[in-house]
Amino acid sequence: MNTPTLVSSLIFAAVVAVIVSYLIHLMLRGWRHRAERQVSLVGTLPPMPETVGPAEIPATKGLYVGSTLAPQWNDRIAVGDLGYRSKAVLTRYPEGVMLQRIGGTPIWIPAASIVAIRTERGHAGKALTFDGILVIRWTLPSGTDIDTGFRADDHSVYETWTGKEDG
Question: Which residues form the PH domain (predicted)?
Fold first, then answer.
């Protein structure tokens, strides 16, 4: 490679690196601003109970897709770690639903807060070609309704969670 070509390649690479880092900066800034706007809507999550009864629906392994402001399936919550996907285990107790996330804080959904449990084709930026995401709509202590999405490893358990039979 001759010197002018090398210099122009290095300049081009530097310009691309600056543009990419600027775009990443803008995305992170947008995420922080979204969290600032949502903090009053979300407030604090319900506290974990001291004890729970026996599991009504046993532990279901899968992926925590994220939580969104209801009814917008694509308006991901950026407060705390509610917006980050992670592997998780979902269990139903008489007192509510426990969502234990790998690498994230557990989420407790009290039974009295649950508005609906249904399946959806898309949630929190993840879209599928079939009803592959279990969505729990519930009301936070602040009064805001949110949808929490969970994609189970075994989709046949959805009828147990929703109370509907497929077909």
Answer: 43-163
Residue ranges making up the domain that contains 23: 1-42
What distance in Å separates the CA atoms of residue 130 and residue 162, rounded to the nearest whole number? 16
Contacts of 51 (CB under 8 A, 6+ apart): none
Note whether residue 93 is domain-resident.
yes
Chain centre distance of CA 2: 51
- CB contact burial 141-151 (16+ within 10 A = b; e otherwise): eeebebbbbbb
| Backbone dihedral angles phi then psi of residue 87, each to the nearest 5 degrees | -65, 145
Burial annotation 103-114 (CB, 10 A radius, 16+ → b, else e): ebeebbbeeebe
Pair 79, 118 in one domain: yes
In one-letter notation, the amino acid at residue 19 is I
What is the pTM assigned to this prediction? 0.76
- How far apart CA 66 and CA 148 sit, in angstroms, is 6
CATH number at residue 119: 2.30.29.30
Residue 47 CA to residue 57 CA, distance in Å, equals 21
CA dist list (Å): 134 to 15, 114, 154? 44, 13, 11
Question: 141-162, pLDDT tens digit by residue?
Answer: 888 899 998 998 888 888 888 8
